[in-house]
Amino acid sequence: MRKIFFLMLVIAGMVLMTGCTNTQGVYINFERSQPLVKAQQINDEDQRPLRIAVATVISPNETIEYYRNIARYISKQIGRPAVLVQRKTYEELNMLMSNGEADIAFMSTGAYCAYRGLTEIELLAMVEYDNSTFYDMQIIVHKDSNFNSLDDLQGKSFAFTDPLSYSGHMAVLQLLKDKDTRPEKYFGRYIYTYSHDKSIWAVANKAADAASIDSMIIKYGLANKELLDKIRVIKTMGPNPTGPVAVREKLNNEQKEQLRQVFLNMHKDAQIMPSLQGLLIDCFVVPDSDYYRPLQKIYDQTGGII
């Protein structure tokens, strides 16, 4: 009887152990942050999926599908699996690159200029839109307000997008620095929306008195004329270089060149163009690092944000 009882315990233990074993592959939840498989966990780097990072601040729920289409396109072109890893903030995106947990990143101008990570990165391409590789920072207010300059906004509420965003944060910090002050002293209150279109919504619905956005977002916002009809621009600052695509420097040189050609020729494929246009991209062009150096110096003054 004891032997039978012991045998039953062994079988039960084996069942429990089997039930706790994860037999599924890695799942990337695009709505939540999840830990990634480290590069060193896979012996042959060329065999593991290419990890493409993105932190979209233009209608995240709408634009993520465009990024997924681009990731699938890249995978097909280079003959290598690819996974898209979404993060909410630019800091989280930079941390992915810094920790070697991503190979490529669609970076904003500010995220790239702020990057001081442990993993070296290099420019792969930059965005061209409306025949330009530059954009302006714009401060917007409600059309019915009596605000006409930054001076009028003292003591008022302000909506920033992301702490590392240039148009959505750092440009305003520059303007306030010229006044020898900072947001916490100058504004009555301020918030981070983590989305340019949410900043537009906040001003249009008077949840904030003003906001700073990328001028390209105004063009994107043309799809929502109701919101645009409720705002007006009181300050423009620029020009500033568009956001680049950055790549991990130690990625195989042959792979980097292959990826570079994929990006530079992507616009020639009619099937992927709708996704590019949805992200305000006419095409990708050869980047010029000199465009970003003046802004990198500005971020240096903040104490080297990652």
| Number of DSSP helical runs | 12
Q: List the helices and strands in order.
A: HEHEHEHEEEHHEHEHHEEHHEH
Kindly, what is the distance between the CA atoms of the first and last residues, rounded to a whole number of angstroms? 65 Å
**The CATH superfamily title of the largest domain:** Periplasmic binding protein-like II
CA radius of gyration: 23 Å
Measured as a percent range, the helix fraction is: 25-40%
Number of domains: 2
What's the rounded overall pLDDT mean?
Answer: 85
Low-confidence stretches: 1-43
Strand order of the largest sheet: 2-1-3-10-4-11
Share in β-strands: 15-25%
Output the structural class: alpha/beta
| Shape type | globular
Q: What is the makeup of the main sheet?
A: 6 strands, mixed
CATH class of the largest domain: Alpha Beta
Topology-level CATH name of the largest domain? D-Maltodextrin-Binding Protein, domain 2
Question: How does CATH name the architecture of the largest domain?
Answer: 3-Layer(aba) Sandwich
Please count the beta strands (DSSP E, at least 2 residues each): 11
What does this structure look like?
- The structure is a single chain.
- The protein is an alpha/beta fold and 306 residues long.
- It has 2 domains: 39-130 and 243-300, Periplasmic binding protein-like II (D-Maltodextrin-Binding Protein, domain 2, 3-Layer(aba) Sandwich), CATH 3.40.190.10; 134-241, D-Maltodextrin-Binding Protein, domain 2 (3-Layer(aba) Sandwich), CATH 3.40.190.10.
- 38% of the residues lie in helices and 20% in strands.
- The protein contains 12 helices and 11 strands.
- The protein has helices spanning 2-19, 60-78, 90-98, 109-114, 166-178, 183-186, 196-204, 215-220, 225-228, 253-265, 273-278, 293-300, and strands spanning 50-54, 82-86, 104-106, 121-128, 134-142, 157-160, 189-192, 210-214, 231-241, 244-248, 283-285.
- The strands form 2 sheets. The protein has a 6-stranded mixed β-sheet with strand order 2-1-3-10-4-11, with helices on both faces.
- Strand 1, helix 2 (60-78) and strand 2 (82-86) form a beta-alpha-beta unit.
- The longest helix has 19 residues, at 60-78.
- It is globular, with a radius of gyration of 23 Å.
- The model is unreliable at 1-43 (pLDDT under 50).
